């Protein structure tokens, strides 16, 4: 299956003799890179026999299936700050995960190339037919497909792991065992986040917060960008516009909402600022090749950059988040790490020179793609330490590497308010999910420029069905709170955000599965339908867990969309109309501005909250509605995970509840899926809806605590369901999970 040819070059004596300075010194525009240890490279060629579809290698604004690179540039893994990045490009963006996933009908395979230096990946697909075009098709010899993959990194050693699957689920588990499982986020992090560069002052924040309540739109977190600080000095507050930050946080906390502030890795070079002096005197900054402090330009102007590769620097940085040191903060404040590729406005490719020097004498070229990962790590540790180890952190990072899933969430950076960027966000998030970075999202509406109302509504509809859900916009754009575009737009956005909140029990369960098994909540169709070759290139629709199929509308003015419903033996139910459709077919679905194409798979059970509430803190008290979608055999199953939503008690004291719902032979059973859980759950079930019931039942019996109770129900037969119907049983009493 696998052949490789590895090579590493160091000092080429012949070239050195002829031109001794050429290999040790490289010039890029006005920048000079001195290679103190000499030139080097590390590479390997791998032949993946039998495979003709490969994925992964984020982050790139490109299709889900990686393209053949013979017609242009290789895929580049080099973390960079790229404003309004090009679409369908192999150019490196904010993060890098050197994991390539190959899939065919009977096997899924992964190749993990552990190297944090600049890396290029070339991909060559071999045709399955004989290459001689003169040969008649009937006489062409059928060739075994294969994909050739060439890795080339600037430095490091060959550290390559092949993950053998053979199923997609086993591959994800193997990769999680290698690099870490997704951190279980606090429940509020799965709600809606409202952000802007920048909300003007405390009154502005309170007005936006009140606007959500006034318009009955749930949300959980409001964010502050760089302008909240005193002169772009992180860990400070603007004394005029944010004079009482702790009071602002308490105001939000009364409604069970949170505040997120930005904290970038550059520190303003201000000898009159105590934090800068503390970092300088403690040896916490990156040095240049001459051994002096490295200086670069970013938001504050002249800045120094923290050396997060140093354990001592990470520990010092973590302590900066304590309530005593970070004045004006409370336990309801969380953090956003931005510009951590790192971004250097006056650096080569707007990043740090490769010959800058880190802890232990390592050149920046050796660990460039790990820089943001290390800041993310230090920030997460700081928030955990702040709570005495009891509370789960939330930290969003723009830069990432393999293993960042252990720390928190990422997003796709400075996107643009255009239909093309909405469309590309889906394969970008799927590529991240396949590579283990599953808590991911794209800025709703586009960070740059102003979306028209239709684009904004469609973006909210798509993002509400993706893991990280945040609206964000640049300071030069018009304000775009959801109620600023007229009643029709407000109503459409309100509806999808409320639907997101109602679906949070399902989302939270999916994140528990990611945390324990490595399964991504967002999945390409081929993950669930691994033998259906028609799904291998689909990247405009996706599975949410194993139960829901989403096909967001990503083009303007459409009156109809084509939805591929995979699985020839499957049944799919339209979530909104309950109409049933056969798998293995393409559905032409009429759409209006309010239409969000979403289907539940036959054989699944999905738990929802009956109402959305105003934030996630209310979900624990809200009753559940359960939708049981029957497969052709009349069976279905699903899970529900519950805990306190914020602490590590689920881990340290087994304070969680995991229930399994199983439908078989006309009986729906709810039983413990884990014997470990000790969470005393007061969640009640309000109603159960059965889709695909073949005939009207004579009676419905609910068995609770040893007692049989006959319950009322409604039954409706759908016109296109071949005699099948919808049965809804509203429980008139509390049924504990």
From TrEMBL:
It comes from the Eukaryota. GO terms for molecular function: alpha-1,4-glucosidase activity; carbohydrate binding. Residues 14-121 form the Glycoside hydrolase family 31 N-terminal domain. PROSITE patterns: GLYCOSYL_HYDROL_F31_1. The keyword Transport does not apply. Residues 183-510 form the Glycoside hydrolase family 31 TIM barrel domain. GO terms for biological process: carbohydrate metabolic process; N-glycan processing. Signal peptide: none annotated. Keywords: Glycosidase, Hydrolase. Residues 518-606 form the Glycosyl hydrolase family 31 C-terminal domain. Pfam families: Gal_mutarotas_2, Glyco_hydro_31_2nd, Glyco_hydro_31_3rd. InterPro entries: Gal_mutarotase_sf_dom, GH, Glyco_hydro_31_AS, Glyco_hydro_31_C, Glyco_hydro_31_N_dom, Glyco_hydro_31_TIM, Glyco_hydro_b. The keyword Hydrolase applies. Belongs to the glycosyl hydrolase 31 family. This is Glucosidase alpha, neutral C. It comes from Lates calcarifer. The gene is GANC.
């Amino acid at each position: 299956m696998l052949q490789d040819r590895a090579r590493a070059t160091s000092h080429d004596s012949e070239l050195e003799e002829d031109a001794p300075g050429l290999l040790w010194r490289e010039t890029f525009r006005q920048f000079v890179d001195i290679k103190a240890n000499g030139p080097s490279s590390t590479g390997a060629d791998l032949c993946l026999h039998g495979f003709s579809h490969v994925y992964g290698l984020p982050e790139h604004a490109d299709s889900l299936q990686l393209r053949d690179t013979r017609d242009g540039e290789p895929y580049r893994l080099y973390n960079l700050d790229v404003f309004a990045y090009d679409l369908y490009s192999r150019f490196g963006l904010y993060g890098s995960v050197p994991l390539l996933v190959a899939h065919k009908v009977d096997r899924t395979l992964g190749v993990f190339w552990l190297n944090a230096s600049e890396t290029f990946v070339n991909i060559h697909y071999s045709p399955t037919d004989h290459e001689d075009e003169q040969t008649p098709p009937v006489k062409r010899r059928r060739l075994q497909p294969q994909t050739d993959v060439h890795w080339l990194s600037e430095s490091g050693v060959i550290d390559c792991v092949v993950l053998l699957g053979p199923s997609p689920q086993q591959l994800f588990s193997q990769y999680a065992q290698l690099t870490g499982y997704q951190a279980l986020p606090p429940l509020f992090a799965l709600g809606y986040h409202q952000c802007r560069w920048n909300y003007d002052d405390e009154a502005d924040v309170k007005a936006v917060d009140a606007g959500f309540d006034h318009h009955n739109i749930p949300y959980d977190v409001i964010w502050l960008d760089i302008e909240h600080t005193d002169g772009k000095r992180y860990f400070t507050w603007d004394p005029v516009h944010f004079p009482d930050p702790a009071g602002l946080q308490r105001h939000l906390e009364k409604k069970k909402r949170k505040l997120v502030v930005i904290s970038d890795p550059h520190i303003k070079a201000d000898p009159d600022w105590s934090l800068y002096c503390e970092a300088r005197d403690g040896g916490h900054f990156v040095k240049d090749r001459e051994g002096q402090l490295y200086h670069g330009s970013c938001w504050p102007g002249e800045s120094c950059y923290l050396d997060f590769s140093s354990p001592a620097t990470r520990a010092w940085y973590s302590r900066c988040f304590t309530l005593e040191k970070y004045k004006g903060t409370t336990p309801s404040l969380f953090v956003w790490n931005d510009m951590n590729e790192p971004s250097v406005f006056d650096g080569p490719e707007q990043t740090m020179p490769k010959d800058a020097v880190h802890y232990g004498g390592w050149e920046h070229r050796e660990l460039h793609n790990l820089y943001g990962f290390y800041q993310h790590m230090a920030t997460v540790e700081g928030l955990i330490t702040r709570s005495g180890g009891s509370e789960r952190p939330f930290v969003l990072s723009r830069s990432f590497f393999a293993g960042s899933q252990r720390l928190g969430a990422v997003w796709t950076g400075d996107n643009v308010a255009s239909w093309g960027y909405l469309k590309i966000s889906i394969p970008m998030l799927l590529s991240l999910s396949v590579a283990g970075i599953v808590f991911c999202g794209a800025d709703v509406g586009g960070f740059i420029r102003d979306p028209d109302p239709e684009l904004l509504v469609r973006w909210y509809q798509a993002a509400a069905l993706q893991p990280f859900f945040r609206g964000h916009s640049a300071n030069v754009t018009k304000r775009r709170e959801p109620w600023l575009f007229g009643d029709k737009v407000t109503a459409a956005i309100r509806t999808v955000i409320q639907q997101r909140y109602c679906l949070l029990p399902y989302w939270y369960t999916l994140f528990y599965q990611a945390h324990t098994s490595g399964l991504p909540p967002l999945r390409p169709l081929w993950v669930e339908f691994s033998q259906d070759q028609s799904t291998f290139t689909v990247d405009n629709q996706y599975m949410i867990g194993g139960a829901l199929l989403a096909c967001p509308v990503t083009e303007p003015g459409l009156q109809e969309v084509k939805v591929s419903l995979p699985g020839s033996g499957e049944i799919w139910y339209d979530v909104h109309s309950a109409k049933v459709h056969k798998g293995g077919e393409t559905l032409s679905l009429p759409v209006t501005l309010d239409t969000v194409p979403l289907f539940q798979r036959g054989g699944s059970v999905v738990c929802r909250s009956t109402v959305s509430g105003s934030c996630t803190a209310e979900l624990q008290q809200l009753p559940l509605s359960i939708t049981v979608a029957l497969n052709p055999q009349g069976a279905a199953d699903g899970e529900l995970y519950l805990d306190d939503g914020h602490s590590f008690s689920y881990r340290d004291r087994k304070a969680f509840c995991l229930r399994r719902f199983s439908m078989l032979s006309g009986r729906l059973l709810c039983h413990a899926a884990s014997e470990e859980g000790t969470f005393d759950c007061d969640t009640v079930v309000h109603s159960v809806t059965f889709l695909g019931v073949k005939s009207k039942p004579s009676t419905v019996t609910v068995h609770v605590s040893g007692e049989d109770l006959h319950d009322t129900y409604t039954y409706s037969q759908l016109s296109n369901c071949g005699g099948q119907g919808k049965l809804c049983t509203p429980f008139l009493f509390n049924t504990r999970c």
